[in-house]
Design brief:
- A hairpin with a 6-residue loop joins strand 10 and strand 11.
- By secondary structure, this protein is α/β, with parallel strands linked by helices.
- The termini are far apart.
- It is built from 20 helices and 22 strands.
- The strands form five sheets. The chain has an eight-stranded parallel beta barrel with strand order 1-2-3-4-5-6-7-8, surrounded by six helices. A four-stranded antiparallel beta sheet has the order 9-10-11-12, with no helix packed on it. A four-stranded antiparallel beta sheet has the order 15-22-20-17, with no helix packed on it.
- Helix 2 packs antiparallel against helix 11.
- The protein is globular and about 80 Å long.
């Protein structure tokens, strides 16, 4: 991993570039044609795996994430491939037992990862030690990452001490991971200077461009002795992504920090990605320019997009300002954790729930309870004990040891659980990360039904209807609302359930995705004519009408049913678990009584107005 250049570069186009700007949706087929040229550049490494790519491959792209890794390694044999690993969280949203962490690192190394950037969201280095040790056992490059944030308790002395601890663990490099783009040029220079004085390892800087100062931050860091910087090829740079590769190469040219990289070759690569990006217009981030608000709110742009989706699901998008104001309060209550996966999801989702419920901490996700119990690690700041008590009860015990020490070995149990649906050890690990999504993927793979989300616009069939069929609505028209005229064009539709269907609509040439709920259906009568009737909801569930009816606080998916019909329950018992916004939300019995009817099963999608479980009060 030695590099004779004054400043080395890690290219992020194949992971964080499209994760930041295109919802991680870039497909392997769009990466492979440019891999040969990427491999010729001479990057210190190319980040191509980890982060959200694993989840997205299985959930949306219907690609095998392990296949992607092996294929990219074969296509770029001369450049080290880098991944982002969340320590004991790996790539999921919980802590895994040590044997799972060890096996995951083993298989990642065997399939093509050369550089492992390992971090813990709370900078609790107890949670990265096993992963780093296993990287070294595989004779791969271990990079310990400091999650940079700003709070009353996070000091430069604290970050320097983290760097020393990474060095003591045997790391090969140390990264400053500025996931929200909070570093300023002055602070970057001072932090790098102090780290270089304290440790002998090369320093690597990862800084998002959201606030508009990332290029200056990288320049000052490099002048102070930073050895490697992260950049993204220009079509995938800027906004919530990173400084442009070509720009930083040009800035350093003909200086003692000259990267030596070929700008002409980089331009060819940029031309390719410029065309590729057009294919993913559906997934464009809302934050593609400079947004200095992050310096005050500390909320990464990607997190803002996620919050918008959460609020949209609740029909509460107009309450975004309330959520943005609530996030710092929740973060303070939680002891000032850095906002990065999974803590960003935990804090952000809890803020949304506080706003939607109209009362702070009325609804608490399982992840929030686990965080406050110490199952994610120890926060640097002081946790609000009133909030902790509300989550855990008066006698709730707080974990004060390494959280993974509470976990027995899991690999054998996971292997038995998934059974013959897993065709390899990689499949078992995919199941460990995302059980429901992985099983769905395995079934579709085994039955040749792997259909990724469509990138092409699906044009509705506008053939003339039969004489006895209802007339089709126009696909292009003008509407007037409050005196303002809008041009509407139906561009296509997506996969749909019995009750909801997404449509892609251009409003004044801006593509929007809308969901249409079926309230009527067309039925033939005995005489052959057409009639419309009120459609039953696809779920066939009744509306919630009694105080004893169990409902979900938000739209989501049932991941656990904890009761059976005829079972006695006590008010407050957890009867269901609903996954929403990547968080698990326990649903409690509103009254004591007997479970009369279950209207759901695991895997069902549910809405807040539905009765999910009928309880007859005692």
């Amino acid at each position: 991993m030695t590099n004779q250049r004054k400043l080395a570069i890690t290219e992020l186009a194949l992971r964080d570039g499209h994760q930041s700007l295109l919802a991680t949706r870039m497909r392997l087929d769009d990466m492979l044609p440019i891999c040969e040229k990427l491999d010729q550049v001479g990057f210190w490494s190319i980040e191509a795996w980890g982060g959200a790519t694993f989840d997205t491959c299985l959930r949306y792209l219907k690609e095998g994430p392990w296949v992607r890794l092996r294929t990219l390694k074969q296509a770029m044999p001369h450049t080290p491939l880098q991944m982002l690993l969340r320590g004991q969280n790996l790539l999921g949203y919980r802590h895994y037992a040590d044997d799972v962490v060890q096996k995951f690192v083993d298989m990642s190394a065997a399939n093509g990862v050369d550089v492992f950037r390992v971090f813990d969201a709370m900078n609790d280095l107890r949670n990265v030690r096993v992963a780093i040790q296993q990287v070294k056992a595989n004779e791969k490059h271990a990079e310990g990452a400091i999650c940079y944030t700003v709070s009353p308790v996070h000091t430069l002395e604290y970050f320097v001490d983290l760097g020393k601890q990474f060095e003591d663990m045997g790391c090969d490099t140390v990264a400053i991971k500025d996931m929200a783009g909070l570093l300023t040029p002055t602070v970057a220079r001072e932090l790098v200077t102090r780290l270089k004085e304290a440790i002998d390892l090369p320093l690597h800087l990862h800084c998002h461009a959201t606030a508009g100062v990332a290029e200056m931050v990288q320049w000052e860091a490099a002048q102070a002795g930073c050895d490697i910087i992260d950049t993204a090829i220009s079509p995938l740079s800027g906004g919530t992504s990173h400084p442009a590769t070509e720009s930083m190469v040009a800035a350093m040219a003909d200086t003692p920090l000259d990267t030596g990289l070929d700008l002409d070759l980089l331009q060819e690569i940029a031309d390719y990605f410029r065309d590729v990006r057009k294919k993913y217009s559906r997934y464009e981030s809302d934050v593609t320019g400079v947004d200095p608000r992050v310096l005050v709110s500390q909320i990464p742009g990607g997190m803002i997009s996620n919050l918008a989706n959460q609020l949209r699901d609740q029909n509460a998008l107009d309450r975004m300002d309330e959520v943005l104001a609530e996030i710092p309060r929740v973060r303070e209550d939680f002891g000032f954790p850095p906002l990065v996966t999974p803590t960003s999801q935990i804090v952000g989702t809890q803020a949304v729930l506080n706003v939607i419920a109209g009362k702070k901490y009325k609804i608490l996700t399982n992840e929030t309870k686990g965080y406050l119990q110490g199952k994610y690690g120890k926060p640097l700041g002081v946790v609000n004990e009133d909030v902790r008590c509300k989550a855990l009860g008066e006698d709730g015990e707080v974990v004060d040891i390494r959280p993974a020490d509470l976990l027995p070995p899991e690999m054998d149990a996971l292997t038995r659980e998934v059974g013959d649906r897993a065709k390899s050890m990689e499949d078992v690990l995919s199941y460990a990360m995302f059980p429901a999504i992985a099983l769905e993927y395995f079934d579709e793979r085994d039955n040749n039904r792997l259909n990724p989300e469509s990138l092409e616009e699906v044009v509705p069939d506008v053939a003339a209807p039969a004489s006895n069929a209802p007339a089709l609505a126009p696909t292009e028209f003008n509407i007037t609302i409050h005196g303002e005229e809008y041009h509407i064009k139906i561009e296509g539709s997506g996969h749909h359930s019995e009750e909801l269907r997404p449509f892609y609509v251009k409003v004044d040439n801006v593509l929007e995705e809308v969901y249409v709920e079926t309230l009527t259906e067309v039925v033939p009568t005995r005489d052959g004519s057409i009639d419309t009737v009120k459609a039953s909801r696809g779920s066939k569930r009744p509306k919630a009408r009694q105080d004893s009816d169990v409902t979900s606080p938000m739209p989501g998916r049932i991941v656990a049913v904890n009761v059976i019909e005829g079972q006695q329950v006590t008010a407050g018992d957890t009867v269901l678990v609903v996954e929403a916004m990547k968080m698990e939300n326990p649903v409690h019995a509103p009254v004591s009584g007997v479970v009369t009817t279950l209207f759901v099963k695991e895997g069902d999608n549910v809405n807040p107005d539905e009765c999910l479980v009928q309880v007859t009060p005692a």
